[in-house]
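ZP: hey, is the iron/sulfur cluster complex queued? I don't see it on the tracker
AM: it wasn't, my bad. submitting now with these inputs:
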Amino acid sequence: MTELVVVSGKGGTGKTSLIGSLAALSQDKVLVDCDVDAADLHLILQNNLQKTTEFIGGKRAVIIEEKCTNCGICPEYCRFDAIKHEVHGENAGGERYWIDEHACDGCGVCVRHCPEEAIDFRDVTSGEWYISDTPYGPLVHARLGIAQANSGKLVSVLRRQARELADQRGLDLILIDGPPGIGCPVIASITGTGYVLIVTEPSMSAMYDMERLLQLTVHFGIPTGICINKSDINPAMTSRIEEFAKKQKVSILGRIPFDPAVTKAQMAGTTVVEHATNGASKSIRLMWSKLSDVLKEHTHN
Ligand code: SF4
Ligand code: SF4
């Protein structure tokens, strides 16, 4: 089984649309959308939702007031200053300890030290993950709740589910739409995978993103190739990317020209390789053919 991840740094390079085409061209695969903050692959792949599962992103401590004797021990153990003390009036009955859910890190230390077992340690639902059917194969995707910070953990859940699905159904390829940036979710998306395809375009900012992503894949020792999207809109910059790739000994697997058919395909609710035969469609097919050979090479090694 091979895991292929497609990443691009910031958005706007046409990565998701390209993955739609790769989904249409490849056989026997599971698709994964690892952009858990703003998943959109399901929209272009006309998904049919099959299964929804809650994502438990962590734990939070909650003091049960009826059991708490106000002994004052727990705040001494909280490194996050999340346990608050309130005094209402002079008499002892007017005080209480409570935990600020936004400050609680879910470390569980207070739970272990409360002599009255008055602190509950509750699961926190941070989002949902889904399995959908699409005309191109099963898709694993997710939605992280607003202001939740467990995207790397959720990405790992998605990749595990995708591997299980691939095993169950005897599928050889896992095609991953990587999240933006170069932070924790991207690292969770690429570590241990077989190949990373960086989609860039001829602009300074996209080239900068490409360089940073390449540093990451080199660091993790993952074979990497580059696809230059809209390669004809700035030939000078495309040459710079090519020179850079040559110096780094990274293959340029695809040069895809700007093509209005890409937008037309999106508006028609299909992929460009199904919508057209020439232009971008032809280049994407050529790239997929090279990519398939490279994947075979890395699967056998
Ligand atoms: S340690 Fe337990 S009993 Fe003491 S203040 Fe904290 S929650 Fe209440
Ligand atoms: S679980 Fe950890 S962070 Fe949360 S209140 Fe208890 S000690 Fe503080």
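AM: back. DSSP finds eleven helices and eleven strands in the chain.
ZP: great, adding it to the tracker
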